[in-house]
Amino acid sequence: MLRTSTKWNFPPNAQIILEGISDKASGFVEVNLKPIDSKTQVSFVLSLKGEGVMAPLVNALISKVVPKVTKEFVENVKNALSTGEL
Length: 86
Known about the structure:
The chain contains one helix and four strands. The two termini are 27 Å apart. The model has no long low-confidence stretch (mean pLDDT 83). Helices cover 34% and strands 47% of the residues. It has one helix at 55-83, and strands at 2-9, 13-20, 25-36, 39-50. The protein is α+β, with helices and mostly antiparallel strands. A four-stranded antiparallel sheet has the order 1-2-3-4. The protein has a single domain (2-83), classed as START domain (Alpha-D-Glucose-1,6-Bisphosphate, Chain A, domain 4, 2-Layer Sandwich), CATH 3.30.530.20.
């Protein structure tokens, strides 16, 4: 489980700080918005790393899971935007 705190400079960006609660981990998510003509380009950066004795195992899990989950998240957002759900 992760605890978050958010620093807004919205627009054009926000930063969410991630801190492990049940496992030692830390990281951040940066969301950036860039207006282009009548649309908005959205990009984000995710950094998450394990800490402590379990760091090697946690980091191996993160490196396997995060790319897949990130790709699914982006596809879900794109589908929701294209269907008008968002």
